[in-house]
Structures are given as C-alpha cells and as structure tokens.
C-alpha cells in the first residue's frame, strides 16, 4: 500500500467538525480534507446568534472558522461589537457545548490572526512575542482566551494566527486585483509596513497538518517565512498582472475612506515568522510571493 493510500485510510477513522464551512477558508478546506480521507461534518451556526447546533455524536476534531468578517466595512461601534462578540462569545458558547458532550473532541483548532501583534514596524516576531496594541490585537487576545476551558480539560487547542491569505475569490487579494489590473495600483501609505502573507494552499495544508501533528499546539503563525513590505507586495502583484504599480494610495485618503480599519489593516503591519511550523517540519508550498500570486490568479510560473 502506498503512503498516500495509507494516510487516507488512517484519516478515515477521524471525524472532523467544521464551523464556518461556507466561508472564504472553509470552501477550500472541506474538499481538501475530504480528499485526505477525513470524515467531515459541518457545524451549523444558529441564525442571529453567536451559538452553534451540536449533535450528540462523536467528533474527534473541531475546526472553528466562523466569525464576523473583520474587513467587511468601516469599523463603526456596531461593527466592532459584532466582530468582538462573534469571535469571543461564539467561541465560548461553542466550547461550553463541546465540553457538555459525552465524548468531547480530542483537538480544537481555531482560526486567529496575526493582528494579535498589532503595528510592530520592523520588529521580528514569533509565537513568543507579546500582544500589540489596538482593537484587533485585543479581539484576538480575547478570542484565543475564550477556548481556555478546553485546554484545562486536556484537549489539544491550536490557535492558527493567519496572515493575509492569498486567493482570488476572497480576502485582501480579491479587492486588489481589479484596480491593479487597470493599472491603478501602488503602495499604501509609506509602503514600508510589512505584509505577512500565506498562500491558500499552505493555509489549508497547515490546518490539515494540525489535525494529526501533536507538535502543533497553542498559537501558531500561519505565514510564509518571507514577509514583504507593502511596496514590494504591490510591485509583485502588478508584475504578475503585467501592469505598472505607480499610483500610490496616500495615508490620508485611506484614513478618510476606511477610518480605524484602514489604520489597522492597511497602514499597519507586522514582520511575523512561522517559527512553530518550521520546528514541526512543515514544508511550504509557497515561500515566494510571486509563485503564490501566480497560483492565486491562475497563471503558471
């Protein structure tokens, strides 16, 4: 029996429950996990509530991806409240229900974000670095803390701190492709802020690895080992699209258009390293930004 078939047969004994399965990452993850041989069940969110429907059935692993879209519009007071409660209260409620099951899962994998580190300039950061300042850093801190009851019961908990996930059907890249395709792209603000990114293929393969690899525990930076400055990201995307990158978006305009969201997600940055993934022997499909962008927009290297 070859190694691929053997791994698939081993995975078939594991049942994986997924929240947020219809979202940006979930749509790519679920087919991938099924191809790996895992048995998948989608955990449904109760409409208009930060809570989930759970059946009393054996689930070995839960992957928690559900939450209010952070980049889905200006951060009004109401929007910020939805972001915070969807992640913190949603995670607390999910964990309470998991612990009430006759057989709780052995592994809980929750999405998180490199926003934990805040705006850190050129500082080199890894999973041992402390939290930064700002709204998103505080959201992530509370979000990760919400699953602590599972850890106290001996469940392996993983917080996947995703960087900017590169795929043409969602996230940051989807919003950038049209203006850059029209030759209207360029750096944002000074362009010196770091972009810690990850290809969608690597993002879903890291999740898959986290299911069975017991070395992966606690906060894990899901980012390429080669972060780039915003100006370099803009130049690389423009080159992939065969367009110039000569029209910068000034900081005052970003601030006027997006407010706090723009200041934290566009004008800020963090130079984040995937220390734990490298220690666990993960081999990146895309450590080079150009190759990741070429795959994301459907062109060959």
State the secondary-structure class: alpha/beta
Unreliable parts: none
Percent helix:
40-55%
Mean pLDDT: 93
**Alpha carbon gap, first and last residue:** 33 Å
Q: Strands of the largest sheet, in order across it?
A: 2-1-3-4-6-10
Radius of gyration, whole Å: 19 Å
> Main sheet, how many strands, which sense, barrel?
6 strands, parallel
What is the chains' assembly state?
single chain
Number of β-strand runs: 12
What sort of overall outline do the alpha carbons produce when their principal axes are compared? globular
Helix segment tally: 12
Element-by-element helix/strand order: HEHEEHEEHHEEHEEHEEHHHEHH
Strand content: 15-25%
Report what the structure shows.
The radius of gyration is 19 Å and the shape is globular. It contains twelve helices and twelve strands. Helix 3 packs parallel to helix 4. By secondary structure, it is of the alpha/beta class. The strands form four sheets. It has a six-stranded parallel beta sheet, with helices on both faces. Strands 5-12 form a two-stranded parallel ribbon. It has a two-stranded parallel sheet with strand order 7-9. The longest helix is centred in the first third of the chain and has 24 residues.
């Amino acid at each position: 029996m070859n190694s691929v078939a053997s791994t698939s047969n081993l995975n078939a004994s594991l049942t994986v429950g997924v929240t947020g399965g219809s979202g940006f990452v979930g749509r790519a993850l679920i087919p991938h996990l099924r191809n790996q041989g895992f048995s998948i069940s989608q955990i449904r969110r109760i409409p208009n509530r930060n809570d989930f429907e759970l059946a009393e059935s054996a689930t070995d692993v839960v992957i928690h991806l559900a939450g209010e879209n952070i980049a889905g519009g200006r951060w009004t007071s109401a929007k910020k409240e939805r972001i915070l409660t969807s992640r913190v209260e949603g995670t607390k409620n999910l964990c309470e229900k998991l612990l009430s099951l006759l057989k709780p899962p052995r592994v809980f994998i929750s999405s998180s974000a490199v926003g934990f580190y805040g705006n850190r300039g050129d500082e080199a950061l890894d999973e041992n670095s402390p939290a930064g300042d700002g709204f998103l850093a505080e959201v992530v801190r509370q979000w990760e803390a919400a699953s602590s009851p599972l850890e106290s019961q001996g469940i392996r908990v993983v917080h996947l701190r995703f960087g900017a996930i590169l795929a043409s059907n969602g996230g940051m890249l989807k919003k950038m492709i049209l203006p850059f395709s029209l030759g209207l792209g360029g750096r944002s603000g000074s362009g010196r802020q770091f972009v810690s990114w990850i290809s969608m293929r690597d993002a879903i393969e890291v999740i898959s690895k986290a299911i069975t690899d017991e070395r992966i525990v606690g906060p894990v930076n899901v980012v390429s080992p080669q972060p780039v400055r915003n100006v370099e990201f803009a130049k690389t995307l423009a080159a992939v699209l065969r367009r110039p990158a000569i029209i910068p978006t000034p900081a005052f305009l970003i601030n006027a258009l997006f407010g706090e969201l723009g200041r934290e997600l566009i004008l800020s940055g963090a130079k984040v390293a995937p220390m734990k993934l490298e220690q666990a022997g993960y081999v990146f499909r895309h450590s080079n930004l150009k190759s990741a962008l070429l795959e994301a927009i459907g062109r060959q290297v």
